[in-house]
Amino acid sequence: MVAAYLLSALTNARWIDALRVLLFTVVALLALRGSLVPRRTARLILVAVLAGSAIMLTLSFTTETGRGIASIWAGLVLLLAVVVVVHRVLSVRTVTAQNIYGVVSAYLMIGVAFAAFFAAIDHLSGGHFFAQGQPDSTQTFQYFSFTTLTTLGYGDFAAAGNFGRALADLEALTGQIFLVTLVAFLVTRFRAPGEQKR
């Protein structure tokens, strides 16, 4: 997740969108590998994710509409990974540092997923996502997404349309609920390695 974030923060080349689809697919597959999903269901999800990602990889090099659809796919794949990771973390009896890392990864995935949805709105709407003609790029979508998720909100970027604003509100609520409930719950149940044997 950090690699995908940094790659897209460093350059705005068109091939980055395709690389992000690949990286997000790998993230989802790694999450699926460590999940408690039955093997048959996992295989079906694996086939669907691989086939969908191959199609989306091709679309990311086509028109703005193709890039928008690929962005929606990337966001959905990341949200699937979030659900799988959170389900796995909540299914354990003893919370370890690995579980805490899992929810931190899920939190990062939420931010990047919303950035992909904001990019999809930009590609599919035909206009600008941001008000006052602010630049639309992967970097600005990620910046806007994480300042929204953390409810920091510097105010230098704002969504222009109602759908973008509603999605930003949903992200802010998701970020707060995620931190206040899930992360706080896990941290209170955390046991250091020496305490787990008692």
Number of helices: 7
Strand content: under 5%
| Poorly predicted ranges | none
* Total number of beta strands: 0
Q: Calculate Rg over CA atoms.
A: 18 Å
Structural class: mainly alpha
Mean of all residue-level pLDDT scores:
83
Helix content: over 70%
Order of helices and strands: HHHHHHH
Topology-level CATH name:
Helix Hairpins
Give the tally of structural domains.
1
In the CATH classification, which architecture applies? Orthogonal Bundle
Describe the biggest sheet? none
Oligomer: single chain
Distance between the termini: 35 Å
* Name of the CATH class: Mainly Alpha
Overall 3D geometry? globular
Structure notes:
Helix content is 73%, strand content 0%. It is built from seven helices and no strands. α2 packs antiparallel against α3, α4 (64-90) runs antiparallel to α5 (97-125) and α5 (97-125) runs antiparallel to α7. It is globular.
Name the descriptors.
single chain, 198 residues, mainly alpha, Helix Hairpins, 7 helices, 73% helix
Question: Any chance you could write out the topology, listing elements then pairs?
Answer:
Blueprint: H1 2-10, H2 15-33, H3 39-59, H4 64-90, H5 97-125, H6 138-149, H7 162-189
In short:
This protein is mainly α and 198 residues long.
